[in-house]
Structure formats: structure tokens, C-alpha cells
């Protein structure tokens, strides 16, 4: 089975990178690391859980706020 890398995976990768390099807790960092290390086939397996975590902890909003703060600091 061939699994293509999608733009959606790219968006989820961006959130994961922000978590890994940010100040979140160890659970979120561990899951984000697992997501980043997964191949496309395993990302399809992890995707639903990762999207639920992103929604539960409002991580996309945190990513936007981090980017806005970094832009102001420059």
C-alpha cells in the first residue's frame, strides 16, 4: 500500500515541531516526537489521535500565538 505525504501531514508536522521545541509537558512532547518520527503509513494510524490531542489542548492557537510573539520580538 502506497501512502502519499499530504499537506495535512505537513500542517500536523508544524504543530508537532512547535511542541517539541516549545515548553509543553512530557506527554505532548513524546507524542509529537512519535508523530515526527513516524513514516507516512504510521502517520495515518496516529493521525486521528494526534488531531484529537491538538484540538483538546488547543495547540493550533498556541502555535499561532507563538509565531505572533516571535514576529513582534524580531
Number of alpha- plus pi-helical segments: 4
Helix content: over 70%
Low-confidence stretches: none
The proportion of residues in beta strands is under 5%
Oligomeric state, counting identical vs distinct chains: single chain
Radius of gyration: 13 Å
Reported for the largest beta sheet, the result is: none
Number of strands: 0
Count of structural domains: 1
Topology:
Blueprint: H1 7-20, H2 26-37, H3 40-56, H4 59-73
Helix pairs in contact: 1-2, 2-3
What do these coordinates show?
The longest helix is centred in the middle third of the chain and has 17 residues, at 40-56. This protein is globular. The chain contains 4 helices and no strands. Helix 1 (7-20) runs antiparallel to helix 2 (26-37) and helix 2 (26-37) runs antiparallel to helix 3. It has 74 residues and is mainly α.
Features:
74 residues, mainly alpha, 0% strand, globular
Task: Give me a quick take on this structure.
By secondary structure, this protein is an all-alpha fold.
